[in-house]
Amino acid sequence: MYDGDIASVVISEDRIRARTIELAAELAQRYQPAPGKDPEEDLLLVGVLKGAMMFMTDLARALPIPTQMEFMAVSSYGSSTSSSGVGRILKDLDRDIADRDVLIVEDIIDSGLTLSWLVRNLEARNPRSLEICTLLRKPDAISMQVEVSHVGFDIPNDFVVGYGLEYDERYRDLPYIGLLDPKVYC
Ligand code: PRP
Ligand code: MN
Ligand code: MG
What we know:
Elements: E1 6-11, H1 13-30, E2 43-49, H2 53-62, E3 67-76, E4 87-91, E5 101-109, H3 113-123, E6 129-137, E7 150-154, E8 160-161, E9 177-180
Parallel strand pairs: 2-3, 2-5, 5-6, 6-7
Antiparallel strand pairs: 1-9, 3-4, 8-9
Helix pairs in contact: 1-2
């Protein structure tokens, strides 16, 4: 539907779905609910707007355990001169996460700046636990000081879009991850 803008399919809709089910099983194992538990003990998914929205909603539906959802929007203006990834909160969580099991849900970790900043920000709010689940991870993220417990796919350093990922706010609506044709941004 975007004519020739997508050079190839990198991860098909079927592969995303299959991997999401695997991740959901892994997470259900990790966050086994105790019988008769308090709703405050439900796993709290924190989706990072806007990129994570597709993965977040599909992951939540694939998870066989109760979850609650929160969203955050951050702008990272990490410059090449600073590795601190200083961020700004555009939309904060609606509630307190103290003593909660929190899982940050991301579409992609590229430089890792967004997530390393976000982890430090959320850690300061004293969650019971804080882990990360990302659909995609690029090689540069390896240098990041943050442990990522749940990764869908490790991908090469190519410009990918779709399934939440954009270029100039377009292509988020594609149901698969595609390689953006360089003619679009050159
Ligand atoms: C993208 C992506 C991740 C982040 C990864 O979000 O969705 O959140 O960049 O990059 P990093 O690891 O180098 O920090 P973006 O800030 O473009 O906002 P969006 O989710 O609204 O597209
Ligand atoms: Mn994002
Ligand atoms: Mg973006």
